[in-house]
Amino acid sequence: MTNYREIQAPLRTIMTPGPVEVDPRVLRAMSTPILGQFDPAFTTMMNETMDMLRQVFQTNNKWAFPIDGTSRSGLEAVLCSVIEPGDRVLVPIFGRFGHLLTEIAERCGADVHLMECPWGQVFDQQAVIEEVRRIQPKVLAIVHGETSTGCMQPLDQIGPACRELGVLTVVDAVATLGGTPVKVDEWQLDAVIGGTQKCLSVPSGMAPITYNEGIEKLLLTRKKVERGVAQEQDRLEVRVPIRSNYFDLSQLQDYWGPRRLNHHTEATSMLYALREGVRIVLEEGLEARFERHRLHERALMAGIRGMGLELFNDVPWKAPMVTCVKIPAAINGESVRQMLLEQFGIEIASSFGPLHGQIWRIGTMGYSCRKENVLFVLSALEAVLIRHQAKIEVGRGMQAALDAYGVERAAN
Amino acid sequence: MTNYREIQAPLRTIMTPGPVEVDPRVLRAMSTPILGQFDPAFTTMMNETMDMLRQVFQTNNKWAFPIDGTSRSGLEAVLCSVIEPGDRVLVPIFGRFGHLLTEIAERCGADVHLMECPWGQVFDQQAVIEEVRRIQPKVLAIVHGETSTGCMQPLDQIGPACRELGVLTVVDAVATLGGTPVKVDEWQLDAVIGGTQKCLSVPSGMAPITYNEGIEKLLLTRKKVERGVAQEQDRLEVRVPIRSNYFDLSQLQDYWGPRRLNHHTEATSMLYALREGVRIVLEEGLEARFERHRLHERALMAGIRGMGLELFNDVPWKAPMVTCVKIPAAINGESVRQMLLEQFGIEIASSFGPLHGQIWRIGTMGYSCRKENVLFVLSALEAVLIRHQAKIEVGRGMQAALDAYGVERAAN
């Protein structure tokens, strides 16, 4: 017996940099009755999802599939499958998630070298390339879009330079995939990890990854088949085995590939969600989707500025899906967030580390990235700031946002 | 643009030992719009889920929460958080999943010692206890229910003996939790891992675990806070850090506990599913649920025997939720499975390792464990076996199953 009742979740307007609102079609897909993992109807869906992921990653890589875990499971799967203890890894840090890459690489036993720049900045690509030349790491692990600062690191020169230098690039595109171009092949990136709960608008719980032949070659040197399912030709011992079974990409690709060698039981309902999520992305079209993210970013920024507030990441390297607002002096940022949630059902984000208490972060990602949400968060923020005695330009933010949307003034 | 259409999944009768059919109420719960991970409405649901998991695990442990991954993620989270390289670990193997425990422990750097018995047998508890005395491991890692053989290892003496000897017990109860008693406290087990896609009838993608104060004490010696979120009092360096960030239980308990320290973004929809799944288990009542599993097991066994087929695991240590049927001589087991799937939409399982091609495995787990499913699988199996020229007792299996259900013969 239990006193607990069925789930009664309030309906929120989620304007954080993830997790964001899930497309209702994705929610519906998740209520589909499940299939067995080796049911041909299900393996067909696995293959279709791989095919669509390749398109979203803009790659011809053979391997593009999800890790069954939240976004950081994708980071760890790639790093722990690629890094052998003692391997040199370079991590340029420009926000919280660079620290996460460092943390994971260290736990893999890497000899980690860091570059750091102040939160709010990104690196000059040449400076990173110089450091790669100097350190000569096996792997450069770098974040594409830092949700902690709303900044985006250009990679179009870093990728080709690393390729030339024989350095593997591992890129955290968790926040950017599906919201802005992540050109895996054109930028010559070796392994890229995306996120579901950001611009793909799928619930957290899967991490789509892709990697190329260079990575695959390396994996095969560490490949080891699980004893319980091994056959005669399979190798059971290797020189430096991957330290994780769950994250062993050499085994996972045997499960996602034609051999379909039993590993875990694929997370059926999440796979349904991911399949539907990437299908919706491709139905909208990548370019149209990126343009939509830019449109709502412009309107949100115009509204914030119009209100007389200052932007933290009003820089050429701003990530289009994260807008950081400086908390006005003498205003309690957490009190504002709480009133937004309690009175309007709107969630925006606070911040980490050196920016803690300094900025609010507003996301415009995926399904959350739409006009009514942007207008609602602006109007609610204005009302709540007035309620906190903040000095703002009353009424101007909304008008600026409507202007950005090209809404004509009606004739008298 | 994409040519793929919305998901169109055939509706199957899933009678494998996992994944099994999901309760429609759980499917519906997953289509609930998501909440942010720190939304009070969501953290309340996290706490409620912990509370209900404790009841399902029959424990008063403080810690009972899911790992965001499939079942083996729970095994790896516990083992890699507990095992330091060089630690002695004893694994008694009586089927495929003992090999998996070995595989994971080895990758954690453990000095693994094995006991093996033929597939289809389990260990005499005293023999395990003797071996624990002899090897003096830090950890005994053992499977409770082996879906590969349909056998269940008694643990009621092993647990208390290990406690007395100062050996930590880590138990894989993936297949058994929710279908038969898993008495964490009474059996004095230190860490236990359950599965969602078996007797809980929740989709694969989460792994509920529980562990006690002894394990927690050990975790705290290895605790290390992530740099990106660390505060002054937090330790950044430890002697032997946990080799995984994703599976670091010392960090995960800070996320699930009152500190709510940011780690991953909780897999919202899967948490909804798990909360609803365990709620339904408790609503039915543990004892009633276990009795239901035994009832349908009896009917299925009677039906199989009545048909003139032989059971592989007709033993006192049979797991009630897995019934293994010997494939009759000269019958192609895979052809039978294929006809069941294609003509009836019924899925039963093949087998691994030494049992490959020898047995079919039929699951009666969770929502799949109900009368109409048992009767349907028996009647379909009979028809398909006749279609394969097998010598069976025509019509007798169904009558035996109806007898087992206590269905009276109608008067003329």
Order of helices and strands of chain A: EHHEHEHEHEEEHEEEHHHHEHEEHH
Beta-strand proportion of chain A: 5-15%
* CATH homologous superfamily heading of the largest domain in chain A: Type I PLP-dependent aspartate aminotransferase-like (Major domain)
Shape of chain A: globular
Uncertain residue segments of chain A: none
User: What class, by secondary structure content of chain A?
Assistant: alpha/beta
Counting DSSP E segments of at least 2 residues, the number of strands of chain A comes to: 13
Mean pLDDT of chain A: 96
Biggest sheet strand order of chain A reads 2-10-9-8-5-3-4
> What is the second-level CATH architecture of the largest domain in chain A?
3-Layer(aba) Sandwich
Percent helix of chain A: 25-40%
In quaternary terms, these chains amount to homodimer
Tell me which protein chains meet in the greatest interface and how many residues each side has. A-B, 90 and 90 residues
Radius of gyration of chain A: 22 Å
Q: How many separate domains of chain A?
A: 2
- The tally of helices of chain A reads 13
Q: Return the CATH class of the largest domain in chain A.
A: Alpha Beta
Beginning-to-end CA distance, first to last residue of chain A: 65 Å
Modified residues (N6-(pyridoxal phosphate)lysine) (chains A, B): 198
GO molecular function (chains A, B): alanine-glyoxylate transaminase activity; L-serine-pyruvate transaminase activity
Protein name (chains A, B): Alanine--glyoxylate aminotransferase family protein
GO biological process, one term (chains A, B): glycine biosynthetic process, by transamination of glyoxylate
